Amino acid sequence: MLSTYSEILKIPGAKAFALAGLLARLPISMFNISVILMVQIQYDSYEMAGRVAAIGVLVWALQTIPTARLTDRFGQAAVMWPLTILHVTGAILAIWTAMTHGPEWALWIAVVLASLSGPLGSLTRARWSHILESDDDIHTAFALEGVLDEILFIGGPAVATILATAIYPPLGIIISATAMVIGIAILLPQRSTQPPTRKETGGVGLGWRVPPAIIAVTLIALGIGTMFGSFDISTVAFSDEQGHKAWAGVLLGIVSAGSFVGGLFYGSRRWKTPLWKRTVIGALFLGLGFTAISLSPNLVVFAIIGFLAGATIAPSLTNADTVVQRVVKRDQITEGMAWVRIGMGAGVALGAWIAGVLIERGGAHAGLYTSAGAGLAAFGIAVLTIPMLRNGTERLDNDPKAEDAPAPNEVHELDEYVEQPPLGPKL
Question: Taking a C-beta distance cutoff of 8 angstroms, is the pair 339, 69 a contact?
Answer without folding.
Answer: no
